[in-house]
Amino acid sequence: MKKVLHVSHERPGLWQDTNVTYAQVPGWLGHSTLELHLTVLRQFEGQPKPLPVIFWFGGGGWMTVDHNVHLPNLVDFVRAGFVVVSVEYRNSNQAVWPAQLEDAKAAIRYVRAHADNYQIDPAKVVVMGESAGGHLASMVAVTNGQSQFDVGDYLTQSSQVQIAVPWYGVVNPLSAKQNSTTSDFDFVYRNLLGGEPETHPELVAQADPHTFISGQTVPFLILHGTDDEVVPVDDSRTLYDDLVSHGVDADLYELQGAHHMDEAFMQPEIAQLIIRFLKAHLIEN
Description:
- 43% of the residues are buried.
- Helix 3 (132-142) links the parallel strand 5 and strand 6.
- This protein has eight helices and eight strands; from the N terminus they run E-E-E-H-E-H-E-H-E-H-H-H-E-H-E-H.
- Helix 2 crosses helix 3 (132-142).
- It is 28% helix and 23% strand.
- The chain is α/β, with parallel strands linked by helices.
């Protein structure tokens, strides 16, 4: 068969900038240099205006980080008009908290400094992540303006964000450890903090979003499964309640019957829910 097709251009093609080095930090007990990377998913050049950006932080209990593993599930956001930046951050075998928060903010500063290269609107920044990455997204958002966590290069750039979307994110490390229905992951909180949560309340407070929430905290969209066996859904409920009590614009969606890292979070219905929330707060305002 031979046929001429007249193809309509309904959507742009996509680029992927893979494993871009955004920072060099101490590695191997401070005796070597560790490169940290990010991957950018974006539309082909030629857009009429810069696009809002979503910084994505994958999970792994702070023990392992693969910033490329979720990229296929994030394409819906790129198609909807966002640039997606998936960020590698140090795991807890490489550095204890708040190194992970410092890495996340360093990535945001780096991308802001190169916003033109990636078609990004630096005034419209979202942080989103799952599990340990959800915790990191929350912490980035509630520490807007906390200069002690801005460490490294591009310090003339801001690490401020405009919205947070944690998926079944850890909130308080002690509560997550004590109220989980499984003890299989108890060790991850000690490794992250550099001490047992039960005996180091000062370390727990430094890694707890509740510590930093104020009336100036940015909007939150929180997602959590009702049958999460790793991170208690009650912790997301208390986070939501605390945000609302401070006058923060927040929504909590509980996915009925969903477990930790459930495929339910990857469904088009959830992507569209998030996209509507982001457009209402970033694009239409």
